[in-house]
Amino acid sequence: MSNLDFIYKRHSIRKFKNQDVPIEDIKEMIKAATYAPSGKNLQNWHFVVVKNKEKIEEMAKIVERKSDELASYATDEEMKKSFTKYRKYQTLFRNAPVVILIFAGPYPSTGLEILKAKGASSEEIHNLLRPSPGIQNIGAAIENLLLAAANMGYGGCWMTSPNFASKEIQDYIGFKKEGYFLAAITPIGVPEESELKSPPRKPIEEVMTIIE
């Protein structure tokens, strides 16, 4: 048994048992999330927990309505088909007992003001902002949350596909915090056994370069 087994327990869970997740367990997962590293230790994250089944279902319907609206703007059938084929994945959170919405807050990119002061080109500014350090903080927190959930016998699925309806979801749940926006969603619950698998990973040699 490897000391890293807790990592390999994490899978993208899309089907859940009809079993409650106690709020104390959710707090433990979110506590683990807050121990992720963040640039300047700004901890620019906020977690909104939704356990109300009616509210979860309404969020799914919001995504469906927005999806229908966007699909109507497609200029051809191929574009529409490409967008709508992922619809069932955009609302898979509807059958989970808990949905956690992860919000990202402001993050000042190091060097941005200096570049602006020197009259940097849009390309220079783009290259500075492209790594999105503020969002990297959020990603680290989400991964911690999902690893904790898996180690506690639960599962989740890192979702950004419903982001096209983020404003409508945020308005519906009524969460407001200056400068914060919805970055990702994860359902949380006890996984169906059939979900405890992962797709193959690329070989290490393909994704690693060693420079000596």
Automatic annotation (TrEMBL):
<feature type="domain" description="Nitroreductase">
    <location>
        <begin position="7"/>
        <end position="189"/>
    </location>
</feature>
<dbReference type="InterPro" id="IPR050627">
    <property type="entry name" value="Nitroreductase/BluB"/>
</dbReference>
<dbReference type="GO" id="GO:0016491">
    <property type="term" value="F:oxidoreductase activity"/>
</dbReference>
<protein>
    <submittedName>
        <fullName>Nitroreductase</fullName>
    </submittedName>
</protein>
<dbReference type="InterPro" id="IPR029479">
    <property type="entry name" value="Nitroreductase"/>
</dbReference>
<dbReference type="InterPro" id="IPR000415">
    <property type="entry name" value="Nitroreductase-like"/>
</dbReference>
<dbReference type="Pfam" id="PF00881">
    <property type="entry name" value="Nitroreductase"/>
</dbReference>
